[in-house]
């Protein structure tokens, strides 16, 4: 029965958790993290009064007699009930009891007590994680845990998978993630207990993010220079499509177990990676696995119907690429033979190595801040902007729809004005839009609703494009040896930013309503200024090793021989030291 006088499904003390629930929806990087709105949807609920239910009282009659009504919230209290003799009420009947409620009171006054069981309005959602395990009232913190493990899984991915990809390769990590993701996705639909469900959702989130991170780095490493701008933008379009499809599936499939099963089905598509996904030739070359890289490059050349130089020429070119990293490789082999403590320290050193390399330190810090800013502002706008619709299905669909123009606008910008100028412009546009929202709040408090929606959503489009750009830009700024590590650690900074957004909106916004907009606008402006420090990577090949960033010049350079490439060379374009197209032989001449 559709109940009257109910709001959005939150009752009494759970009203305070309403914003946290919205936060768990907004804090998402992948389609799977949008599912909590439907898998864990909270329908209307009230205390279960067994004698009245057995007496065939209607839901509205039970509410009228047993459930307190809050004038301040305009809703019934879902976690409390009046302390009446409901057995006597059932015998008297509804009309007689409502005419004189004192007949069923315990004593002279009516007391309010907590209820031990609840009834849910299944006409809204037939079953959800919340109704399955009663995740309301005193157990509401467990619901928050089901949301928090998703963010925890992504944080683990950011800290661990970047290192693992640079150590073991892109393909092995993808395949392991795919297997775990498929198994845990289907097993989550059959979770016998809440604890098992939480564990499985953590694994689903971690491996889902690991798959995306690995595939993105792989795609950027396999892409030719002239296609990198298009691929870097269009690779996000399927994600936006999945974002829009998510509410449609939830609308058609209401029971949460079947819904989880339906969301796990698309993961089966990833099985084709076992046959179609090779490892990154760039990574194989840096690891000295030349024969494996040659086989992959030969297959690529055959598919593209392009000629490839003879095997000895290609192998010699590969050796020339990694020749400068031989000494560093030897040090790594020594570490593997050391004690467990030495190995542990070596891993820690590898995790923070981007900050220890002088030529990469400033670049790393700027990139980390840009990721932090993009994520914080993106989710800050999503949480602080006025909802376009109160319908959760339409609201999430529109959220995905707004992603598409961001990526389509980004593509020509990268082609014609480059990465750095595009990033600066996007952050500036975002800052202007957010400051406009702040000005409207100051000048027209409580008014100009459409103007606030327009500028907030315009800012969201700009920062969405900036967010996708920093993904691609980071992959281009760092050498193959540290590329996955850089993207992973930068993504961790983004998680920190997204986690801070609701606190900024709640705490800072509680003091001054325009303060969050002021902070988000300022952070966007700072990011625009810092982005000017980064080099332009348009028309540049991806750097292969850390030596490409060295400022030292080889003595051979003065004699017309080979030399190490300086940081300035990288800003202008990466030098190909491996192949001379005029002679068809490996050499050290510039292309």
TrEMBL record:
Q: Give me the Gene Ontology terms describing cellular component.
A: membrane
Provide the topology term for how it sits in the membrane: Multi-pass membrane protein
Record domain Major facilitator superfamily (MFS) profile: where: 86-539
User: Do you know which Pfam families this protein is assigned to?
Assistant: Sugar_tr
GO terms for molecular function, please? transmembrane transporter activity
Sorted alphabetically, the keyword list is: Membrane, Transmembrane, Transmembrane helix
Does this entry carry the keyword DNA repair? no
Bias-annotated ranges (Basic and acidic residues): 551-571
Query: So where does this one cross the membrane?
Result: 173-190, 196-219, 231-252, 258-277, 362-381, 393-417, 424-444, 513-534
- Provide the primary localization: membrane
| Sequence segments annotated as region (Disordered) | 1-20, 551-591
Its annotated compartments are: Membrane
The source's superkingdom equals: Eukaryota
What name does this protein carry?
Organic cation transporter protein-like 15
The organism is Homarus americanus (American lobster)
